[in-house]
Design a protein that fits this description.
The protein is of the alpha+beta class. It has 17 helices and 23 strands.
Length: 492
């Protein structure tokens, strides 16, 4: 039995085949090899053609089939991970009426902000757990206001993963509570599609796709698509989840207090909360996690920090000796003492940060002493500053009632640095566990859960490959002193 997972990303579509019994990844492939295009008709806009995702999926499927001896006959279930927040508008025949307005498109910000003010911040936060902001509902409001003739032709709205599932099934227009929550369409207090949002923006209820459980046999591959992709007709499509909730699933982060983290170009901390709660200042995003199922509340609290891995890359280009690797940088940074002898780096140099209430404070270096500080000190202070920014955001999660015990991450990017891991463990008091996984593999496991092949996530991920564990070190007091100095400089 083989499970097929798709990850519908902004830059490519990746497909993975997982042996359901052993948990081994049999094959993975992506398409295209270079980054897929994003159309920017105006500054701040970002669109992609949903047909492009489908074409990429077909190529990725062919590639992964070739790696499996040219056959997909043993695939018994399909799972889908996808880029969050994108708006896909389809007509009655399932045709996309316009390019998708994707996650990084900022045109709808004024619509979301006005809704927040008009509906009321208290009501939005207590019912939606977020400001409507720049999410899918606000993007749809922009279409309604600026493309009224097209808006009248919309039969259903979808997220990117919903669209792909529709294409695979030959027409099933479905979504999930988790997906609706990421678009600001779900009322957590009343446990239904938000009347506030639908009434305020003037949306008809019929525009919402049918709601199906995240883990379930949602639909099946139709005959035409089965023949086109080399799958069996009737193969279940049994899981879908946004990329960040799916990343958490990939690491088996399903219980309250567990954290999934990534440290790529931006840094993401995604924690599971067991109670319906929100941040009064809306500094984090809160969505229904993939296993949210009333009365068992499971919310995903999402913290995104723009200036993390990109700072590390900037340090490599600008500060580190020319031609060195990231591993060499880590080794050089280790030669400086904890706290960099009073040196602090504030890493927020990649635009406004939600964790700072949408302020753009920039990046800065504090406490430089020309007589003692070297490249090693600066490189260490940069990695410590990134870890401190993670901890700063996680304090918000703790204020919301989350007891943080474990941070799980893929063995990649910033988490390859022992210094970064050690610093983060010290200042948060959490144990850091590294695993070998990715989004498409996680989606494949999700398909196995949804199809009933696994009884739960613990059963599915019992073969998840553990790489290493980092526990708080004995120098914790030194790290915490450096963190307190960093916070003083940040807040000043």
């Amino acid at each position: 039995m083989i499970l097929l997972g798709y990850d519908i990303g902004t830059s490519s579509v990746k497909a993975s085949l997982v042996d359901a019994k052993t948990g081994k990844t049999i094959a993975s492939a992506q398409y295209p090899d270079t980054e897929a295009p994003i159309t920017t008709k105006q500054a701040g806009w970002a669109e992609q053609d949903p047909q492009m995702w489908w074409d990429e999926l077909k190529h990725a499927t062919a590639r992964v089939a070739d790696k499996n001896g040219g056959s997909l006959d043993d695939v018994v279930a399909i799972g889908i991970s996808y880029q969050m927040h994108g708006l896909v508008c389809v007509d009655k025949d399932g045709n996309a009426l316009r390019p998708s307005i994707i996650w990084c498109d900022g045109r709808a910000v004024p619509y979301g902000n006005k809704a927040f003010e008009t509906i009321g911040s208290g009501r939005c936060l207590s019912h939606l757990l977020n400001s409507p902001g720049n999410f899918t509902a606000a993007k749809l409001a922009w279409v309604k206001d600026n493309e009224p003739e097209l808006f009248e032709k919309i039969d259903k709205i979808m997220l990117p993963g919903d669209y792909i599932a529709m294409r695979l099934s030959g027409g099933a227009k479905q979504t999930t509570v988790s997906g609706l929550s990421e678009g600001m369409f779900w009322d957590f207090k009343d446990n239904c599609v938000s009347r506030d949002i639908m009434n305020y923006f003037g949306f008809n209820d019929s525009i919402i796709s049918d709601i199906v459980p995240t883990f379930s046999i949602q639909s099946r591959v139709c005959k035409a698509v089965a023949e086109e992709l080399g799958l069996k007709e009737g193969t279940p499509i049994s899981y879908r989840g946004g990329d960040q909730p799916n990343n958490a699933l990939s690491l088996n982060v399903m219980k309250p207090g567990e954290i999934a983290a990534t440290g790529g170009t931006s840094g993401v901390v995604y924690g599971v909360l067991g109670d319906v709660n929100y941040d009064n200042l809306s500094r984090v995003n809160t969505f229904a996690h993939v296993n949210h199922n009333m009365p068992d509340t499971r919310l995903g609290v999402l913290l995104c920090i723009n200036g993390t891995g990109i700072l590390n890359a900037w340090m490599k280009r600008t500060v580190a000796p020319e031609g060195v690797s990231y591993g060499d940088i880590n080794n050089l940074a280790e030669t400086a003492p904890v706290g960099g002898e009073g040196l602090s780096v504030i890493p927020f140099g990649n635009g406004a940060e939600r964790v700072l209430q949408n302020k753009n404070i920039g990046a800065s270096i504090h406490g430089i002493n020309f007589n003692i500080h070297t490249k090693a000190h600066i490189l260490r202070a940069a990695q410590e500053g990134i870890a401190f920014s993670f901890a700063y955001g996680m304090e918000i999660m703790q204020q919301m009632g989350m007891e943080i015990t474990t941070i799980k991450a893929g063995h990649a990017n910033l988490f390859l640095s022992p210094l970064f891991r050690r610093t983060l463990a010290a200042v948060t008091g959490a144990t850091i566990e590294l695993y070998e996984t990715d989004g498409s593999v996680g989606a494949a496991y999700g398909a196995g859960i949804g199809a009933g092949i696994y009884k739960d996530s613990d059963d599915a991920f019992k073969t998840l490959k553990h790489i290493s564990t980092e526990k708080p070190v004995k120098e914790t007091a030194e790290y915490k002193a450096a963190y307190e100095l960093w916070k003083q400089r940040l807040e000043a």
